[in-house]
Amino acid sequence: MTPAQKKAKNSRKLQEDTTAGVWVAVYRVKDLHNPAKKWKLERNATQLFMSGTVVLYQDVNIVVVEGGPKQLKKYRQLMLKRIKWGEDTYNDKDGTEHNNKCELVWEVPTNIL
User: Fold this and answer.
1) Which sign does the torsion angle of CA 53, 42, 14, 75 carry?
2) Ordered per-residue pLDDT tens for the chain, 113 residues
3) Helix (H, G, I), strand (E, B) or coil at 26
4) Do β-strands 89-91 and 97-99 pair in parallel, antiparallel, or remain unpaired?
């Protein structure tokens, strides 16, 4: 296969992944003000053909994404392992400094609901 054919095949596999059902995942990130990390989240969701939203608030930021099981597995790896959240620090309302962190709050296939 040529490189273009391989790319088209991988793209087709990811797009057709939602035929097995659409899954939803919710992540909580303490601080999401780093533009590089915001860009990584958005760019990876676009590349994986996922949809979702980000809710930014003072000390709790929520990332909601939906896609197929393979897409969500790749995105989970990004959120929980590939991005080094602990490198960033943030100050809470009291002014104390904490390490940033991300945790998976909820994940479920929507056909179960």
Assistant:
1) negative
2) 899 999 888 888 777 767 777 889 999 998 888 889 999 999 999 998 899 999 988 778 999 999 888 889 999 999 999 999 888 888 777 888 888 889 999 998 765 54
3) strand
4) antiparallel
Which residues, at least 6 apart from 18, have a Cβ–Cβ distance to it below 8 Å?
Answer: 67, 68, 71
What's the predicted TM-score (pTM) here?
Answer: 0.83
Contact between 104 and 80 under an 8 Å Cβ cutoff? The reply is yes
Residues 70 and 17 sit within 8 Å (Cβ to Cβ): yes
Contacts of 13 (CB under 8 A, 6+ apart): 70
Q: CA dihedral in degrees (93, 98, 104, 105; nearest 10)?
A: -30
